[in-house]
Write a structure and sequence with these properties.
mainly alpha, 2 helices, 0% strand
């Protein structure tokens, strides 16, 4: 489980998040994390 959390954290770090785009990117990030990191 720690390995999975670490992978998710790495994927989140590679995605730039701006204050105005945070809400949209959060949704996109969730989708990308599920596809790219699982």
């Amino acid at each position: 489980m720690n390995q999975t959390k670490r992978r998710i954290a790495e994927c989140r770090l590679t995605t730039p998040i701006g204050p105005s785009q945070h809400r949209v990117l959060k949704t996109i990030n969730t989708y990308l994390i599920m596809r790219h990191c699982s």
